[in-house]
Amino acid sequence: MASHRRPKQPNRTRVTVLTAAAAAAVALSANAANAAPTEKLGKSEVKAKVDKLYEQAEQATEKYNGAKEKQEKLQKEISTIQDNVARGQQDLNKLRDGLGSMATAQYRSGGLDPSVQLFLSSDPDDYLDKASTLDQLSAQQVEGLKKIQDKQRELAQERAEATEKLKDLASTRTELGKKKQEVQGKLAEAQKLLNSLTAKEKQELADQQARADRSSAQRVELGGNAKGSGFAGAAFSAAQSQIGKPYVYGSTGPSSFDCSGLTSWAYAQAGVSIPRTSESQANIGTRIYSTSDLQIGDLVFFFNDIHHVGLYAGGGQILHAPRTGTVVRYESMSTIGGPFMFGVRV
Hints:
With 346 residues, the protein is an alpha+beta fold. Helix content is 63%, strand content 8%. The protein is elongated.
């Protein structure tokens, strides 16, 4: 006789899992079909992104330079304070030794009653002279104590100042490390983009950069005839001698430069000390807001945050260290990539 048993129902949990897996597979297939393939950036897009990264790297470079300059200044100040403390401690020790000698002498001479000492003295006149000296020693002790107290307060103040500067130095070193990492990160990111180009595209960009450098160096009307006067003229001439030197962040020459490294080095050759960073250089001398009033050798500043500086070369041109991947060269102020803010006559 045929069996009429009902077929076994599938497990409800198993059905749910299978249904969910099928739905996920459908969704993944749909997403895969709709997803756009990863697009390779073209040469012009890569160049635009790289230029932006180089600009950001230069911003970070000027912050790095500022932190480095502050670190060096703090180290000198701390060294001076520590030398002063060491000398002050020697002076304090001498004052203490002198006071101790006076106290010992007074104690020894004061062991007997003065009237008894006078009676026993073989030379009463000599004793009276010594007694007078003892009164003076007491006054000297008071003065000695005052000097010791003053010196102790002075040393305590200098030690406290050194402690604060050491704390400031520690935070400055931390900031310096962060800015260095930021610069290196931007440069590494730019290099990664450049590495994504084909060999032909890389060569085209290199040729474009070389043409820009040659065009700059071959401007005879600037390279040969541009002359300034006074300190500015001497600084400009010094900068001219560095045309073709590579841009390296944090560098102040003479083998390589960053933007403010070139300007500070050039003015140093003219016998004028100016601050290290573009931000600090912007706050010296007389500001000039009209390009028509600029003279050769004036400092010229670009971008809203003043992170780029060069030397005015006349005719709407500047002589500067542009950015990573370039060399010291002439360039039109209109092609810097950021607005001209003002000039400074040192």
